[in-house]
Request: fold
Amino acid sequence: MPDNTRRARDEDFWQTFADRYDSEPGPINLENGYFGRMSRTVVEEYQRNIELINRSNSVHVRQRFEPVDGLRIRAQLARLMGVPADGIALTRNATEGLQSLIRNYNRLQPGDQVLFCDLEYDTVKGAMGWLARHRGVEVIEIEHAHPATYDSLLNNYREAFARYPRLKLMALTHVTHRTGLVMPVQAIAAAAKEQGIDVILDGAHALGQIEFDLNELGIVFAAYNLHKWIGAPLTLGFLYIAPEHLVDIDPDMGEMHFPVSDIRARTSYSTPNIPALMTLPLVLEEHAAMGGAAAKGARLNYLRNRWVNAARKLPGIEVLTPDDPRLYCGITSLRFTDHNDQQVMAERLLHDYNLFTVVRTGAACGPCIRITPGLTTTAADMDALIKALTELS
Reply:
């Protein structure tokens, strides 16, 4: 929306939101991809909920939360995602949901093939390796050429689908945590479906900063975090299974607290962080009031482009994430081409320029420094990064 694009540049407008968050004195945080901040009002609500549950203990949980409030929260998440409530099961994080989807996927036979790429989360790679050891499948890992383009990404998958005819399942990350590359999920999922390959989507970094429709994407299995860009307390996430595909995922390790027809049987049964869950209605209300993913994404993209446009012109700096609007979001990575050890340069950014970043490894294109602005980041913070990169280059 044009209004979001225009408003993304309005520092006074965004300062009104930044003022709602508390932060410790210290370096400028450009590592907001790990987890997000809660607003001051959410922290206060969370604290009230902790005190309430501590006082009332199981009485409130058994009489109120489990039969009423917990179901309402699940319905609210379903509305956020535009899916039926019976397609949502709460988890502690996206990783827990992805592990459950992968290990309980029941359409594999010995000799089948499963696929992931170099940019997936390490835990997802590990879970696919678990399938090889316990299900007798063959694991296929592909690497994406750098620099990536929309067509190169899609063609790489199409070539893999043709090269490995026994493929039945693949992992796909919407926003890759290593470089911030946004995958063309809809096109890849459509190509996979043509070959009878199911996709499990890692949406950990997507929810809250990218607008998407799961039905349009063609995704029937996915997992998400609520503590990154939605603004919830830590230890909150959920998995999604399209109701018509529930039969493809077995109950988790024989889980029997819920009937086999209930998606909640696909997660491990345990006592969740109830005070955090009770905070979700306020979190979702604030997310919507801020303008949702459309407004957040526009702001984060503006901050990203502010430093990337300058860094592209600097010698000795390579920005790894493409500038195709379909392939980037607020998270973007760089590297100092004249330095082998990117950790040394991240430490210089911290100690010499008061900028906190994180090094990511594991991508075929090599180690990089991930830059992730947040909703409290200012244009001046981005200018401080530009100054540092200019001097270090």
